[in-house]
């Protein structure tokens, strides 16, 4: 087995049935590895989104203490502060919490398996496959992580 990177168009990836011997097969294999890596990055964002749905949401506190003068109170009301105390908007039931945990566990297993498969692809020491994994990771991160800011928290009510 080869232990240095090469640029050959012939490689065996993951299984005996995935044996590449032509430039066209190498292009298809690189595209498939790129898509698997892109899916791996999207899966990471999905897991972060699901775990973020369990976090508490902070509510603004705009009421001044009753002992303040009216001038100070009106200044404080015009510039609201964020409370440091977390406030739960909804408390998911035990069934929903359990279901969310099962989904997160399944996604974690899928992410680990996919990560190891991609690692084994890179360990084929083929430069084209390696570049497919790197490019898929770059594209996946570039496309999926900005979506995390736009996603609404998951409601399990």
TrEMBL record:
This is Copper transport protein. InterPro entries: Cop_transporter. The chain crosses the membrane at residues 20-40, 125-148. It is found in: Late endosome membrane; Membrane. The keyword Chaperone does not apply. Its main location: membrane. Belongs to the copper transporter (Ctr) (TC 1.A.56) family. SLC31A subfamily. GO terms for cellular component: late endosome membrane. One of its GO terms (molecular function) is copper ion transmembrane transporter activity. The keyword Transmembrane applies. It comes from Oryzias melastigma (Marine medaka). Signal peptide: none annotated. It is a multi-pass membrane protein. Keywords: Copper, Copper transport, Ion transport, Membrane, Transmembrane, Transmembrane helix, Transport.
């Amino acid at each position: 087995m080869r232990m240095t990177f090469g640029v050959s168009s012939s490689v065996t990836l993951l299984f005996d049935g995935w044996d590449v011997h032509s430039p066209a097969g190498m292009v298809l294999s690189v595209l498939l590895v790129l898509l698997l890596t892109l899916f791996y990055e999207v899966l990471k964002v999905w897991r972060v989104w699901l775990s973020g749905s369990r976090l508490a949401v902070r509510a603004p506190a705009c009421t001044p203490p009753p002992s303040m003068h009216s001038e100070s109170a009106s200044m404080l009301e015009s510039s609201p502060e964020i409370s440091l105390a977390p406030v739960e908007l909804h408390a998911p039931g035990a069934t929903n919490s359990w279901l969310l945990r099962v989904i997160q566990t399944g996604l974690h297993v899928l992410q680990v398996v996919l990560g190891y498969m991609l690692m084994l692809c890179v360990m084929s020491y083929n430069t084209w496959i390696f570049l497919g994994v790197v490019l898929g990771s770059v594209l996946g991160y570039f496309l999926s992580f900005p979506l995390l800011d736009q996603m609404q928290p998951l409601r399990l009510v």
